[in-house]
Amino acid sequence: MKRTRNTRLLTVASFVLLLTMPSIALALENKKQQIFLEHAETLSFDERISADFQLLQGDVRFRHDSARLFCDSAHFYPENNSLHAFGNVHMEQGDSLFLYGAWMFYEGNKRLVKVRENVRLENRDKVTLFTDSLNYDRVQQIGYFFEGGLLVDGTNELSADFGQYNTVTKMANFQDFVRLQHPQFVMTSDQLLYNTTTEVAYVITPAEIVSDSAYIYAVNGWYNTQSEASMLYQRSYVVNQRRRLTADTLDYNRLLGIGKGYGNVVIEDSVQQITLTGQHGYSEELTGFAQLVGRPLLTEHSSTDTLYLHADTLETSKDSIYNQVRALHNVRFYRFDFQGLADSLFYTTQDSVLHLYGAPILWSEQQQLTGKYMQMYTKNNQPERLYVDQAAMVITKEADSLYNQSSGKNLTAYIDSGEVRRVLIDGNAETVYLPRDDDQTLMGLNRLEGSSIVMDRNDGKIERMVVWPQPKGTFYPMEKIEPTARFLKNFIWWEALRPTSPIDVFRRSAERQ
After folding, report:
1. pTM here?
2. Per the structure, how many domains does the chain have?
3. What pLDDT, in 10s, does the model give residues 174-192?
């Protein structure tokens, strides 16, 4: 029976212990959470204020779990587990967090610190937050300021009216009149996230980044203040001394001066007075090189008539003096006074010559010029002279199935005010010419050949033609024109390929036989 009784007693005791364990654990936890006074030179009471009130003075030191608090004097409320600290207030949390201020209120149960006047929060990674009003949540390990704050790390100074700083994640969230001061630039915004470890700023609301070399308008994205690499979204753009680069997504490095755009890219060049658009773009500020692919378009607006140029790839560049433009493959261009197509195109301001490769075709009014290679000499961005090398031919439509035609080895056309005034053809020159009488009625067809031909034109009509030396020819009255006499060898009227509007430059030309 004794054994049984003892067993019962043991069983009951164990049951009571199990019931009371949560309360004991809570009591132990509360005891662990209690603020401990470690030292004070004097301690006094003032029952008129509170029976639990303790007035501490002289080298006051408290401890609360992993935190220690130092001050000149304090009002300590053990019952509420809180205190007010005054004079040279200094709190340390482990070896990573240091908090200073003129005075402090600390709620131990909530682990909430409220520090005021000349507040300084220092983190182990050499990050310091300055403010006059800071609330620090020791549970979340986040400091909040609401009367202006300045965060300083090794490189940057970040300020705002309101903000918070997480001492664990090292993330700062600053709002209202945010300013990030870097030795090489200044970033401003209404809200900014900043990682003090990586020194990367995350753009939440539109931000402006201003430096001596560039202006950046960032709608959304991130900017690494160490490497100055950035990834910006939502039509952000960069402006430097000569260009503005805009894109749906912009990969930009200010130190390298290199920008890569993805989606609806626009490059505006104020020096060359051109605008480049496309789906993918690349720009180098140092060399002036830019490249556009994905339905690229160059718009040149230096003159009254705008030029629209399309190719598979468009490139521009600039050396120390001269600007250059390259258009590679399937070139088509349109201007009100002339249009054309080619395989490739090259232009440089060094000699103001436009080079057209790959059997180019040019149109001006009712006139068509073809050849294997062309050089257009310009002045003040206007055509002045055109040289056609090999298989040169100029055609003007006169009536249905009737064309003025001239061909030869080489051709030189002189242009004034957008109109061809004189044409010189050298080498195996041939012409089919349809003269008119005073009433502008077609008289017949003149077919001539010689070594060279000179044609003077006015208002799109031939006023004078000279064939030399020893020209050979045949005249056919209108009613007796032989079908074989109507066209020169290799005649093709390419009107169906002619660009008819700015948007028509994107039309893919059919293969030419």
Report:
1. 0.83
2. 2
3. 999 999 999 999 999 999 9
